[in-house]
Design goal:
Blueprint (H helix, E strand, L loop, with lengths): L31 H16 L8 H8 L2 H31 L17 E4 L1 H4 L10 H6 L1 H6 L4 E4 L28 H13 L3 E6 L9 H7 L15 E2 L22 E4 L4 E4 L14 H16 L4 E4 L15 E2 L12 E2 L8 H20 L4 E4 L5 H5 L3 E2 L2 E2 L3 E2 L13 H14 L7 E3 L8 H19 L3 E5 L19 H4 L38 H5 L5 H14 L2 H4 L1 E7 L3 E7 L5 E7 L5 E3 L11 E7 L11 E3 L3 E3 L4 E6 L7
Parallel strand pairs: 1-2, 1-15, 2-3, 3-7, 7-10, 10-13, 14-15
Antiparallel strand pairs: 4-6, 5-6, 8-9, 11-12, 16-17, 17-18, 18-23, 19-22, 20-21, 20-23
Keywords: Glycoprotein, Membrane, Transmembrane, Transmembrane helix
Pfam families: Alpha-amylase, SLC3A2_N
Protein name: Glycosyl hydrolase family 13 catalytic domain-containing protein
Length: 655
């Protein structure tokens, strides 16, 4: 029996497998045969499964080769350069691309529609024929309905008995009995605030009535027994041997001598208005303190601001120099014949305004409520602009824009544009414009402009940048009435024609009063049967409906609060402008002041006007569009004395 020696090499034996590629076979039990069988079995198993890629060792070995290493470096460089280019591009766009401006914060008065109320004529509540505070309170819902958020009340202080003037005040911290009392005033203020309506009072610091306690005490001051009120008014000795000649040649606005001799004090007192309205001496520190106390009293009751009346007359020449006649042919008895440099618009006014503005701000900071301060002023535009502030000191929020009152039935597109340019271009930087509809001292809007031009004019002052100041009844096109004694000479004293009762409906007395205790203090205009709130509320084509649509448009869109203002087409017939702001809707306001129709192309006249826009408002039925219509801006039709407001969505500026 042969056997293999331990450690001897295995013998190669011929293979019996017909597919064998090698002509030998391994003997059994050597281990090599078993390993081969195992490898083949593993290979067969691998062929039955999907390929799983290289192993870690193979991957590392191949990735370390120079080709793959260079390729990786190239790819990484490309990615890094791409990211760097992207960052540079983004930074450049941020720095260069026009940014959307942040909408500015605006105080309530800049968003306001101010509505001047002549209290005696607005609404009678107790039936005595005189409008009163309770009457105004009963109409707060109406004021809210038409978009009014600030009411400015005519003087409601007690006045001298039988006085024809509501500025002939005898008590600055009380309410005239015919209007109500302090409790009713506080109730009105609180109710107004509940409706979101601010309350502004008239402030008359230029003069008082003869029966005011200050004047009574002042006239009784003597050299031997002077009292604290001796310098509260402007007192001067007379001229001549008997001292009975007036101190100078000044005339009052009512064409009388501006000086009246008082036999109690044996001096002349100054009155730039009626002789029953002596001028206060605002150079007196005691007067200044008392006036501040008056402001504080009313602010403590919740008043939101003040209108300074007759502000141009607050100071006069310290040396009491004579006024000069404008020409040798001038009638020396007339106020209008003189240069009023010494009696009107004196520079001392600016310091007084700055003091009052600072005082209102100080009080407002304590109460968390900003107070409005505005004033009247006539004269040259540069002098009016000084009211905004002088020598880096704030003045009033705005002086009333009386140039609006010069527009009349002859107004055309160029004239309207000129009025707007004059005010906007003359304003100091960062100041706020205003657009005056009417006052109790000027012709009513409908009387000045006629029934036709009232529509484009209302649209103009409501949508320009600034605060519109309306007079009660403007929203229905109310006219004044003819008063026999309302002559040119006494117009300033009585102004009855523009103070007639508000026309609420076509019932007795125009709905102004039930008059259970008497008759109206003044009869309404006979047109009240057709021109009244109730009839116009039911008429979609009325001035009333236009007014409410304008206040809604102004309230709903921020472009009318703080948007830019730019002129578009301006010619003899048409005045148009654009209001827009970054991120807000843009608006084109196109107004035709002519009595014939006009078609104008606006596309390209201002860069934000698109080729097509949407009708946001029309001023009347003569415009062949309805709200929501799409209109080509290349041919916008405007009816006679009509206008249209077009809108479009904001589109970011392209680089």
């Amino acid at each position: 029996m042969t056997g293999e020696r331990k450690g001897s090499s295995p013998k190669l034996l011929p293979s019996r497998h017909k597919d064998s590629t090698v002509g030998f076979r391994l003997p059994e039990g050597t281990g090599l045969r078993d390993r081969r069988k195992s490898s083949v079995s593993a290979l067969n198993r691998d062929n039955d499964q999907p390929y799983r890629g290289m192993g870690k060792e193979d991957l590392l070995r191949h990735s370390g080769k120079p080709f793959w290493r260079r390729l990786r470096y190239i790819c990484m460089s490309v990615v890094m350069v791409g990211w760097l280019a992207l960052i540079i591009t983004v930074v450049a766009l941020v720095l260069v691309y026009p940014r959307c401006r942040t909408p500015p914060h605006q105080s309530w008065w800049k968003k306001a529609v101010v509505y001047r109320i002549y209290v005696r004529s607005f609404q009678d509540h107790d039936g005595d024929g005189i409008g009163d505070l309770e009457g105004i309170k009963s109409q707060l819902r109406y004021l809210n309905e038409i978009g009014i958020n600030t009411i400015s009340l005519s003087p409601i202080y007690p006045t001298s008995p039988n006085s024809n003037s509501d500025t002939e005040i005898i008590d600055h911290v009380n309410i005239a009995q015919e209007y109500g009392n302090i409790a009713q005033f506080v109730s009105l203020v609180n109710a107004s605030h509940a409706w979101g309506i601010n309350v502004v009072m008239d402030f008359i610091p230029n003069h008082t009535g003869l029966d005011h306690p200050w004047f009574k005490e002042s006239r009784n001051s003597t050299p031997h027994k002077p009292n604290i009120k001796r310098n509260y008014y402007v007192w001067e000795d007379g001229l001549g041997s008997n001292s009975l000649k007036p101190p100078n040649n000044w005339r009052s606005v009512y064409n009388e001598e501006a000086w009246t001799f008082d036999f109690t004090r044996n001096k002349y007192y100054l009155h730039q208005f009626a002789k029953t309205q002596p001028d206060l001496n605002l150079r007196s520190s005691e007067v200044k303190d008392d006036l501040k106390d008056i402001l504080k009293f009313w602010m403590s009751l919740g008043v939101d601001g003040f209108y300074i009346r007759d502000s141009g007359f607050l100071f006069e020449d310290y040396d009491i120099r004579n006024s000069e006649l404008l020409s040798n042919e001038s009638d020396p008895s007339l106020y209008s014949s003189y240069d009023h440099t010494y009696t009107y618009g004196r520079s001392d006014i600016h310091d007084m305004f700055a003091r009052w503005r600072a005082f209102l701000d100080e009080y407002g900071n304590l109460t968390g409520r900003y107070r409005l301060l505005y004033a009247d002023r006539t004269g040259e535009i540069e002098n009016i602009m000084d009211y905004y502030g002088h020598f880096n000191r704030d003045g009033v929020n705005f002086p009333l824009n009386s140039f609006c009152l010069e527009l009349d039935e002859s107004t055309n597109g160029q004239r309207a544009a000129s009025m707007v340019r004059q005010w906007i271009n003359s304003m100091p930087p960062a100041r706020w414009a205003n657009w005056l509809g009417g006052t109790d001292k000027s012709k009513r809007m409908a009387d000045r402009l006629g029934d036709e031009l009232i529509r484009p004019f209302l649209t103009l002052i409501m949508l320009l940048p600034g605060t519109p100041v309306l007079y009660y009844g403007d929203e229905i096109g109310m006219r004044g009435i003819y008063v026999a004694n309302d002559t040119e000479e006494d117009m300033g004293q009585f102004n009855l024609s523009m103070r007639s009762p508000m026309q609420w409906d076509n019932t007795s007395h125009a709905g102004f009063c039930k008059c259970t205790k008497g008759t109206p203090w003044m009869l309404p205009n006979t047109q009240y049967m057709t021109v009244n709130v109730e009839s116009q509320r039911a008429d979609s084509r009325s001035v009333f409906q236009l007014f409410t649509n304008l206040t809604s448009l102004r309230t709903d869109y921020s472009s009318f609060h703080f948007g830019d203002y730019n002129e578009a087409v301006v010619d003899d017939d048409v005045f148009s402008f654009v209001r827009d702001f970054d991120g807000q809707k843009g608006f084109l306001v196109a107004l035709n002041f002519a009595n014939t129709s006009a078609t104008r192309s606006y596309h390209g006249t201002y860069y934000t006007i698109p080729s097509e826009a949407t009708v946001a408002l029309r001023t009347g039925s003569d415009v062949p569009y309805t709200k929501g219509d799409k209109v080509s801006t290349s041919g916008v039709y405007l009816g006679p004395h009509q206008g249209v407001v077009l809108s479009w969505d904001y589109v970011a500026k392209e680089l």
